[in-house]
Amino acid sequence: MEISPEMQQQIRQLQEADQQARILLSQKYQFELQVKEMQRALDELDKDPKAEVHRVVGQILIKSDAKSTSAELKEKIEALEVRLKALEKQEDKLKEKAKSLQDRLQGVIPSAGD
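User: That's the sequence. What structure does it adopt?
Assistant: Structure tokens below.
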């Protein structure tokens, strides 16, 4: 069976959508790990707000107060959560696109055998 150029294009688009979905999942996983790590650090700061805190800046550790470090962590968590929501929206759009392409391809494949 010969595959039409249109069908080849749809197959390529489906493969690209699959690749993009894998990239998004990887990014989403990395962001989720960062959020969990920051949340654990925030939980530790909440246990002892007067604890001595150091943070990494470049290649050195700098002493910092727990309050400002806690606020910074909260801001970073919020920013990551916004990015996660954006990734989820992109993921949903890609799923819809892939489903549409699959449906079109499946509609063409059975008729090609007739």
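The chain is about 80% helix and 10% strand.
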